[in-house]
Amino acid sequence: MTDTTTPLDQDGRPPLPDAEAITTKERSQLQLVTRRFFRHKLAVGSLFVLLLVFAFAFIGPELWKWDHTLHREIPPSQPPSLAHPFGTTSAGHDVMGMVMRGTQQSLKVALTVSLMTAAIAALVGSIAGLLGRWIDGALMRLVDIILVVPPLALVAAVAGNVRGGSTWYAVALILGFFTWPVYSRIIRGMVLSLREQEFIEAARAMGASNVRIILRHLLPNTTGQLIVTATIVAATAILAEAGLSFLQLGIQPPDTSLGLQVQNAMSAMKTRPWLFYPPGIMILIIALTINFIGDGLRDALDPRQTMVRR
Amino acid sequence: MLVYSVRRLLLVIPILLAASMFVFLLVDLSGDPIAELIFQAEATGEPLSQEAIEGLEKRLYYDRSIPERYWLWLTGLGPNNGDIGLLQGKFGPTVRGTAFDIGGEISSRLWTTLRLVGFATILSIVLGIITGVISAIRQYSKLDHTITFFGFLALSMPVFWFGVLIKEVGITINNLLGFRLFATVGSQSTVREGFTAWDTFVDIMGHLALPTITLSLLGYAVFSRFQRASMLEVLNSDYIRLARAKGLRNRVVMRKHALRTALIPVLTLVTLSIAGSVDGAVLTETVFQWQGLGRYFVDRLKDADTFAVMGFLMLSGTMVVIANLVADLLYAVLDPRIRYD
Known about the structure:
The structure holds two protein chains of two kinds.
Chain A: H1 29-39, H2 41-58, H3 60-63, H4 95-131, H5 133-148, H6 151-159, H7 168-194, H8 198-205, H9 210-246, H10 258-265, H11 273-301
Helix pairs in contact in A: 1-11, 2-4, 2-11, 4-5, 4-7, 4-9, 4-11, 5-7, 6-7, 7-9, 9-10, 9-11, 10-11
Chain B: H1 2-30, H2 33-44, H3 50-59, H4 66-75, E1 84-85, E2 90-91, H5 102-137, H6 142-155, H7 159-177, H8 197-235, H9 238-245, H10 250-263, H11 266-287, H12 293-302, H13 306-334
Antiparallel strand pairs in B: 1-2
């Protein structure tokens, strides 16, 4: 299609004389994405719930009088009451204090892992895609090899060997180190098609270096995919961290995490259900809301993927 | 096709070799069984003597450099006690002493885990494909929204928590029925005297039901979402419109034209789901107290039993590589659009 000098309107008639009347408000990319995201009701609701969870995890401990540690004055094995809304453990922990702390740890791990994964995936993917040749070959073979071994087992093998108990950032670093391969493949695929386009050629002709091309031209074009990746990874990281802690290979006591709390409450599920349900449901809520937000973001950032307009 | 198959088959060798190097370096560098044994001995109040430590180092081959140890672990060539060499089917010594054999332990547990992973994968594929297709055909209907919501729920469910939950549901159902329909502990009854073949089968199935449901959850979520997307793409394509324009009945269009094409991409996912299932099996076996490979891996890991850990990782890696190979070869057979010549 060629650009016509006098644009015709929908019915093929020449434009109205008063051009001001039909111009619409100009919107930035961000405004467009936000508008599309807010159309996705489930995602918006999830965002609201997730913000509440964040407040619960990070502001909650400041306001609530009990933390996750053992206190003598807490009566043991109490069912939920006003003084202890989630009940207490047999040793004398306040379950709400524990869940707050565990949620905080989970969210910290999730954020770290998702940022790390997005950064490494962007870097490896764009370098492999842009430079090609043996660098591409070497990086992608590395990805192949890492993908051969089941990821959680791989992470467990490393995490289990960290002696003296791993802290949340150790768990996050190990998780982040093994989650990037799949996503770097996706970014590489995008870069492979981007680098053949004219604007990259133009940048090259103007003497832009590889670093500049990656940072100024390629990465901005993969932002949408990177944001979606970061969201998906955050959800899987929450589940992986909980799984590791459940196997007692993740965050160690005296610190606590949601997975560890489920592990400790396993045998007490019938007799003291208040120990079992809160941490599990919290994991579920975080992962579910993040997944819904990710779905909303995908629709908002890449409208081509939705085949039928809603 | 034959050339392609042979080439693809040969490609497995370098991948497995590289994976073995990767696994070895990772486990060997991150854990030190000798230090762990010294630590454990000190914890009991009886520190190990210098000779005892040297004896341990010799038995576990920790008196050698890392490259030497890797070579020995892989090939078993060179002076050794005849218990090491992956290519000869020997997994290496364990920290627990010479009486234990890693290879024997792994092979006795392999079937237990394969049974679980196999059934769970099949269940998740079948359920995922059926619901995914229904979802796509009835796009944006109430049914589609419900199925999609349950897919998200399954995707976000912590496997181990769901396992404990469904275990309690099983016990409740047993109590309601008045007899044991679902077993919740172990992969088989411990007392099996006087069992006929049928009894054994029923026993195994009763033990298998709940863990299979638990493990298939995650795979189901991924399969159904992927199948829905794949089916939608096909349904919006021109050749489906042509098939309808020809006046074919809806059923024929769906079955013969749409479904066949939409099933092919799902094949790639099977590979990924095997790796995910092994991960899930580690958690599921812990919840249901199965003596499978996953549980074995966690137990050995806590002892810093490096050779056993590496053995498990290599075995599951090999499983993934083989699944990959099968998927690639099946692709060539199933998808007429792919030509490898």
